[in-house]
Design a protein that fits this description.
By secondary structure, the protein is mainly β. It has one domain: Medium-chain alcohol dehydrogenases, catalytic domain (Quinone Oxidoreductase, Chain A, domain 1, Alpha-Beta Complex), CATH 3.90.180.10. Helix content is 7%, strand content 41%. A hairpin with a 7-residue loop joins strand 1 and strand 2.
Length: 95
Amino acid sequence: MTEKMLALRKVKKGKGNVMLQEVPVPEIKPDEVLMKVWATGVCGSDLLIEDDKHFYEAPVTLGHEFTGVAHKVGKDVKNIKVGDHLVGDIETPTG
């Protein structure tokens, strides 16, 4: 059975249309880290997406500023280990 997680998603065009959905936990590639999110921010762009005033393609997961711990680490990742505390943002460059 596929492991599931909850995500806040804008499910279709139009004002509102935001809901918590169960989605599959992503499989990671050798150079990726799967993070268990403890907290996420809701920023201005998330609110604009909810109000249908910002570009997006539905369905889209909201909350691109987040913090948590490394849950799984790909075999090619060198500087992060399971349990490390992490923060992320979509503006963070690779590496």
